[in-house]
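Dissemination and training. As part of the outreach component of the grant, students in the summer workshop were shown how a complex can be specified as a set of sequence lines and then modelled as a single object. The example used during the hands-on session is reproduced here so that future cohorts can follow it. Participants entered these lines:
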Amino acid sequence: MISLGARARATIVIGLIGLMQISVMPHLTISGFVIDLFLILTVIVGISAGSDKAVGIGFSCGLLADLVVNSPFGLNTLVLVLVGWGAGSLAPQLVETHRFLRSLTVGLTVSSGVALYACIAWLIGYSYDAENLIELVVLITGMAAFFELVFRANSQVGVTYRAGRLSE
Amino acid sequence: MSRRPRSRLRIVLFIFTALVLITLDARSDGGPLTKIRSVALDAIGPIRSTSARMFVPIGNAWQGITSYEDLENRNDFLEAKLAEIKSSTLQIGEIERDRKALLSLLGARDTLSNIPRRTARVIDAQISNFERTIELDKGSRDGIKVGMPVETGAGLIGRVSQVSVTRARVELLTDPNFDAGARLVRSGDDGVASGKGAGKNLIVNFIELETVVIPGETVVTSGFQGSTFPEGLLIGTVVDVTPNAVQDTQRITVYPSADLDRIRWVSVILFEADAPGPVLVDRDFPEPSSGGRIGAEQSGNDS
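and obtained this result:
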């Protein structure tokens, strides 16, 4: 069972990520591509905390994304739930893995998410820019791996800090 | 119930909810989901406007760093284009004078220029990589409706795809979901222009194989009855022609005349598909008019 505090934290994080996605990210594009923070957050949560939490985060992020974009309503929700579940399933295999391999896994899972989006969009008849897909996948893999490295480094700093405080 | 089956049930429930939402969205055009999105568009509008003011300079600096070569190429291209335009301006002025003189001789009206327009500022760029949209600072309270064409001085840029009270979202003509009836000005042959993605040219299909198409030829909207575009809106110029002998047609590649990368201000053409008579030129007959010609009855631009 997820505690009330954890739910509140998750809501705040999703809110902040959502705010960044709609306000900051459209202006900080790389080669014209927008960094999808919702997707990256879902994958990082999946790999760090397992599929149970990632599916919930993916569902909330997906609904938020569906509210603000023009694509069929529910498409982002479906993709992020599946990605969260997939990323969470990989989590047990990555507990003792080297951080670079872990980052690479995050990157590849995120790019699988982009490919999954394209597949489902194609299935429901929603056209997308297919020729830029490979470029997008490569870019987002790199970005997600980078975010995972930063996230991990920060969480390690946090853990060390908390451990230090406890030992005092 | 143990933890694992419960978590599986949760996943299934989430997937089911998403599938229901997709189905609802596909089946109900203008239904509750569209209304929810409109409310969201209004709610995030001020945030996006403020963030645009804050982050556009940062974004421009970032673009300068990450796309310096692109900017340089673009600058060269625009300089060449400017030189080209300078040389043709005089010629166009002369042609326009001739056209107006001919219209007045025929007792005809230029309907396209009489359709009212609403000038709007582009407040933000796309959020997702899978769509080519821009957001405008005008909405339904300014008379904007879904489907209305949007242009800059250089030509058509897209159509309104979503409207809230204070905001409108425009699907650009490079969006893969965009299509419009197109006409080759020289031959008068009609086809369908479709978007192929950001930075790519449009494709016009269904042009007959016998039609002679010359690169550089102008392509405009065809404006058939029921079309969301009036006749004669500039789309772009032909850059390539590929014959398709199997289908007995030609595939025309069209370079959009409007610059879609740096749009700041646009005009929303207050044209509705169901209004009768979307014609470029119509004669003024002496007998009483039945009315309803959009261009004849509404007037004035509000810029």
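Chain B has two domains: 3-66, 117-283. Students were then asked to discuss how this feature might be tested experimentally.
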